[in-house]
Write a structure and sequence with these properties.
By secondary structure, the protein is an alpha+beta fold. It has helices spanning 15-45, 50-70; strands at residues 100-103, 106-108, 115-119, 121-122. The protein binds zinc ion (2 copies).
Length: 141
């Protein structure tokens, strides 16, 4: 006899594990970009014959940094499975109910008075799930 099991939705990893992966990749992005900048500087201001030998690895590093940035893992709430990087009811910083959203990429919290937004990168750290208010991470990510 075969029992019918309802199809379980794929559970996302617990939040600290996701946060750790995210932080590790973000640090890699910073290192690659930083190393790329130094080499770019060396190629531009260094002796003329450095251009190719330093310039090419510099471009490669910056390019690798960009890839690292654009492939950052998406953060999801293990409880409601939705993206923790959106804006919904709850403030991701203090967890208060009633987040005011005024643009697709910006919102304001009446409780902690922070304006949250995206300008290339996120200007705040996620501590709570914006959809269900679940506490996610003490350190924030
Ligand atoms: Zn949630
Ligand atoms: Zn808040």
């Amino acid at each position: 006899m075969t029992a019918m099991h309802p199809v379980e939705p794929a559970r996302v990893a617990n939040f600290p594990a996701q946060a750790e992966r995210y932080r590790r990749q973000f640090r890699l992005f910073l290192k690659l970009t930083f190393a790329g900048m130094i080499l770019t500087g060396a190629a531009v201001f260094g002796p003329r014959n450095w251009e190719v030998w330093v310039g090419v690895p510099a471009i490669a590093l910056v390019f690798a940094g960009l890839i690292t940035f654009f492939t950052l893992p998406r953060l999801r709430c293990p409880d409601c499975q939705k993206s923790a990087e959106d804006f919904d009811r709850f403030c991701p910083i203090c967890g208060a109910d009633g987040l005011q959203r005024y643009q697709i990429t910006a919102a304001k919290c009446g409780c902690c008075k922070r304006t949250l937004g995206y300008n290339k990168t996120r200007n705040y750290r996620i501590h709570f799930c914006t959809h269900c208010g679940e506490f996610l991470d003490r350190q924030g990510v």
